[in-house]
Design brief:
Largest interface: A-B, 32 and 37 residues
Number of strands of chain B: 18
CATH topology of the domain at 743-1037 in chain B: TIM Barrel
Helix content of chain B: 40-55%
Radius of gyration of chain B: 38 Å
Number of helices of chain A: 8
Radius of gyration of chain A: 22 Å
Number of domains of chain A: 2
Structural class of chain B: alpha/beta
Oligomer: heterodimer
Number of helices of chain B: 34
Order of helices and strands of chain A: EHEHHEHEHEEEHEEHH
CATH topology of the largest domain in chain A: Rossmann fold
Number of strands of chain A: 9
Shape of chain B: globular
Chain lengths: 222, 1038
Amino acid sequence: MIIAERKPMPEILGMLQGARKVLILGCRGCVAICSAGGDKEVGVISAALRLGFKKAGQEVEIHEETFVRQCDPEYLEPLKDKGKEYDAVLSTACGVGVNFIADRCPGVKVFPALDTSFYGANLSSGEWKEMCAGCGACVLHLTGGLCPVARCAKSLSNGPCGGSVGGRCEIDPDVQCVWHMIYEKLQEQDRVAQMEEIMPVRDWRSAGHGGPRRRVREDLLP
Amino acid sequence: MISGSNLERVLKSGQFAVTGELGPPKSGDPEVVREKARILKGHVDAVNITDCQTAIVRMSSLTAGLIALSEGVEPVMQMTCRDRNRIGMQADILGASALGIKNLLCLTGDHQKFGNHPQAKGVFDMDSIQLLQMVKGMRDGRRFQCGEEIKSHEPRLFLGCAANPFADPFEFRAKRLAKKVEAGADFVQTQIIYNVEKFAKFMEMVRDLGIHEKCYILAGVTPPKSLGMARYMKNFVPGLDVTDDVIKRLKDANDQREEGINIVVDIINQVKEIPGVAGVHVMAIEWEQAVPEIVKRAGLAPRPEYEGVEPVLVTSGAIESAVAQAREEAAQELKRQIDEAKAEAEASRGLIAKEKERTASEISQLRKQVEEAKSMVSQKEAEIQRLTKELEKAKQEIMSAPQGQAPAAGGASQTAVVVEEPLTSREERVLSSLNLGLQALRKVLGLSDEAFEALRRFLEAEFILHLGGVPAGAKVAAPAPAVEEKAAAIEPASEPEEAPAPPSEEKGRNKEVVNLVAKGNVLLHKQDFSGALEVFEQALSIDPDDEQAKEGAEKARAGMAEPAAEAAPAPAEGLLPPCPEELTQEEWARKWVIRYVAKGNVALQKGDPSAAREFFEKAFQLDPNDAKAKAGLDRCEGAPAAAPAPEAAPAEEPAPAPEKAEPESGPEAAAPKPEEPKAEAPEKKEEPKPKAKPAPKPAAAPAPSPGELSIGSLAKDETKLQERAAGISEELYVEKATGAIREVVLGDGEKAITIGGSTALPFYWFEGEMGNPPRIAFDVLDTEPEDVPDSLAKYYSDVMGDPVKWAQKCVSEYGAEAICLSMVSTDPNGMNRAASEAAQTAKAVADAIDVPLILWGCGNADKDTETLREVTSLITDKKVCIAPLTDANYRNLGATAMAFQLPVVASTPIDVNLAKQLNILLENLGLTLDHILMDPSIGAVGYGLEYTYSVMERIRLAALTQQDDKLMVPFICNIGREVWKAKETKLPSDAMLGDQERRGVLIEAITASSLLMAGGELLIMRHPKAVELTKALIESLT
C-alpha cells in the first residue's frame, strides 16, 4: 500500500493562512490503514488546526469529512459543488487523491495534509518499510522475491557491494543488505547460480524516466 | 595489447606491478595534482585518480588524470556510477580516450550519504558490472550501450574493477569478481588488506574459479598514518578489516608513521607470496610522500621504465601533419634562441666583472666587522672583571658591618654560598639547596675553580639582593642576564639526586647525554627504574663512555631487580580477604585495588592524607602498576599534612584483617603527624586497628571551613547503624552489592577529578564504599542568559555575557571543582550561533581555567555534532568532557570522543532501558564504559523529581545488585538548567511564597540533595549558595 506521513503542523497552518472555512477531507484507503489520513487522523488534524488558529488569533470554521477513496471519480462527485464553499480543502489522501481532486473538481482549492512516502508494508504497529519502487520492470523472480531496486541503497543489479558487512548496509546499520538477504534466500532454494548471471543494464523508462506513466486496458474502456 | 598503457605492459610482461593513488583537490588548483604526481612519478607504474571518493566534491577524475598525464604519470581514471547516467559516462569515456587516458577503473561508487552533499540524488543508472560491460562493448564491440555503432576511434581502455575480499557474504565475493571479469575487467584492485589470512582464503577461492588467469589481481594496501586512523578504519569504514595486531603494533610504536610503513611493507611481502597476486595497489591517503619509501623497502624499486605515457592533446591523425610544421617552427625557434643566447652571453660577461667587484668590497667589510666584534669582546671582559670587583667590594662592606653570624648550614665549605645575615629557616633551606645544587653543577660542568668562584659570587650577590640586605648601589651586578639564566638552570638541582641541566657552554660531554642522564636520574628518583634504564641506555648509545650514565644504568638495573623480588610476595594475604569462588585471584585483587584507591580518595578528600596514604599504599602493594594508586600517593605527598615518601614505608604487612579499617578517629590520628620524626610514622600507621565489622565510615570528619556566608556545616553527630540496630542480626538489613560503579576521570593534571567508584547505594556506609565523593560543577552559559531572576543574577552580574570571566569567577571566587559550559547560543531555534564561533569561546574558556571542563551542547543533535567536533579540533591539549551524546548523534560524537580519548555524557530520556541501550551502542562503537557519564534527564522539585529519582534508583540497583554491567556507570545531573527555568525561582518575593532567593536556593539544593540520594555523582548547578549548601550536606555525610 501507499505509505504517507502527516506534514508538520506549522507547514499545514502556513498553507491555510487566511482561510476562513476549511474542509478536512480524509480517505479510507491506504492512508487510513497506515494511520496517516483516515477518520481518526482527520479528527486529530482538525483539533490541532483549531488550536493552532486560535493561538494565532484567527477565526476559522473547520468541517470534517472522509471519503471511501479519493482516487476514484465517483467518490469525488459530491465534492465538485460542496468543495467550492470552502476557502481550502485539506486532503489527507496520498498525492494521488490531491491530484485527482485538483484535476476533477475545478474551482476547489485543494491542499495536501500529507507527504506521500513510499510503497510499503506494515512491519508492526507503527512501523512501515519500503518494499517496492514501482519501477515497472519486476526482477523479483530472479531475486527470491526481494526487490533490489527499492531496497538496495544503490539499486544494484549484480549482488552486494563492498559495503555489505554482516548482512548490514553500509549506509546505516539498521538497514539490512537486501543483496545479502537475496543471496541467503537463493541459497536456501538452491538457486545461487542465478546470482552468477550478469543482470543486464536496466531500462528505466518504465520507472517513470520515460515520462508520466499510464496504463490502458482496452477491454474495460467505456 | 588492449590499450598499450604502461600498466598493461608491466602486467603482461609478468612483472610485479605497483600502482598508487592520487586524490584530486577540493579546488581548481592544478598544482596540487602536479605536486602529488611528481612525488609518485617513477615509483609506481600507474596512479589511480579517484572520482569524488566518499562522495565528496573534488576536481573531476578526468581532468586531474590529464594533469597527472602532463606530468608524465600514467593515470588510471576512476569512474563511478553515482553521479552520471549512461549518457554522461559514455561521453566522458570518449573524451578520456581522446586525450590519452588508457586505463579506466569502473566502480559503483560510495553512497552520497557519506559525502558532503547527502541531499543529492544518487544516479546509479547502472552498477559497476554493467559499466564494465558497457565500456567493453564500446571498446571491443565498437557499440554504444544503446547498440549504435561507434564509427571510428572507439575508446581503447585497459579496464579495471575493485573487489572487497572482506565484505559479506564472503563465499560470494570471488564469484562476484568472476562476474566482473566476465563483464570485462582486465585487472582488479582489492580493498585495503590488513587481514592477510582472510585475503589468502579469498585468493584460494579466486584460484579455484580460475579468475587469476583471466585478469591481473593487485592487492590493495594502505600504510596507517596513525593509531587514530587505524582505529577509525576499523570502526567506521564498512568492509574494512583492520586486525587487532595492527592496532597493537601502532599503539606500542614510538613512531607511529614509521610503524605504519613497516606494517604495510610486511603486508606487501606477505601478499607477494600468495599465488595469483600480480601486483600491489598502494593507497597512501593524503600521504603520498610515503610511497617511494614503501616501494623501496618492499624491494619493488626501481620500477620498469615508463612507456607509452604521453599527453595527447590532439588526435593521433593530426600529429603527422603537425610534425612537419613543428619541425620547421623548431628550426626557426632554435635559430632565434641561439641569437638570444649570444646576446645574453655578452651581457653576462659585464655582469660577472661587476659581481667580482661587489664581492671584494663585501669581504673587506666583513673583515672590519670581525675586528669590531673582537674589540667588543675584550671590552665585555673588562666589564665583567669590573663587576666582579664591585661585588667583592659590596660583600666586604657587608662583612665589615657589625654582625658576626655563623655561616649558613648545609655543608658550607669553601665553595658554599655564605650569607652573613640572620636567616629564617626557609631562607636557610633555600641556601642549603642552592649550595648543594652548586656543588653538583660544578661537578657536572667540570668548571675551573676560578669560573666556579665567579659564578658563586654572582649567585651570592643575587641572593643577598633578594634578601634586601645590600645597599641599592650593589644592585648593578644583579640584572646581568647570564647570571639569571644560570640561577634558573640551577633551580632543579635543589634535589640532590637530580643532575642539573647543563648550560650551553658545556664542553666535555655531549649535551644530549647530559640531558638524558638528568632525565634518568629524575626517573630513578621517582623509582621508575625501567624508564630510567631506558633513558640511560639511550644516553650510553650516544656516548658509550659516559660514566654517569653507566652508573645510573646500573642503579636502575639494581632498582628493577629489587622491586621485582619484592613484588612477588607482595599481594600478601593480609591485604586480601579470601577470594570468592566465582572470581580469579587477579580479579579479586583488582577489585580490592579499586576499593583501596576509592577509600584513599575519600580520605584525601576529607583532608586526612595519612589515612589516604595507607590505603594507597595497600593498593600499590597489591598492584605496583596501578596508576591511580600512584597518583594517589603523589597527591598524599602534596597534601599539607604530608607523611614520609612512599619508598620509606617498610614492606612488612599488617596483621591480617578481613577489611582494613580506617583509624578510629581520622583527624586526631593525623593531626600530630607532621611533627613526628619521619622514620617513626609508617610503623605507627601500620598498626592494624581491626574493627569487628566492616564499617569504614569514620566517626568524625574534619569540619568544613566555615565561610563568611551564612551557610554553615551540618551537625555531624551520628550513631552508627550497627549501634542503632543493636540486637538485630546484620543479615536482616545489610544487603551487600555485587557490582561496582566504574570510575571516570574528568580533566587532566592536578585538578583532574574522578567520578564514581561506589560499591553501595549512596551514603549506605554500612553496606560498602562510596568511592569518590560526589562533585559539583558550576554551570556557565556561553551567552548572556535572558530571564534570570535577580536572586541568581546578582552573583554573576559582572561576568554574565563573558563566559571566560564567568568561569574564572566560579573557580576563583566560589571554588568550583569543575565547570560546565552550556553552549546554549548554538541552538538553531535560538541565536543559532555558528559552530566555529562557539568553539572559539569554548577554547577560550578551556584555556582560562585549569579545572575539568564539560562542554554541553544545545541539545540539537546535528548542531551539537557540528559544534562539538569543532571544539574538539580546537581544544586538543585538554581532556574536556563532551555532552550530550544522544541516540541521534552518538556515532559521530562517539567517534570524535574515541579519537581524542575524551569522556562523554550519554543523554537519554528518562528510562532505564534507553540509558542502557545508549551505553551499549557507545560500547559497541568502541568507547569504553569508563569514559561515559550517564545523564538520565532529570526534573527539578515540582517538575518530575520523583520520577527522576525512581528511575535513577532503579538504574543504580540494576548496576549494584543485578550485575548489569552496562549500567555500572556514574550519573551526571544537569540540575541548574532545570531548576532555574522553573517559574517558582522567578516569582518575586511575597508573603505566601517567601523570599525569592531563599526559595531558589532551596529548590536547587533540595533537587541536588535528592538526586545525591538517588546516586547522582556529578551535579551541575548554578547558585553559589545552593552549591555551598549541597557541599555541606555531602561533607557531613561522607
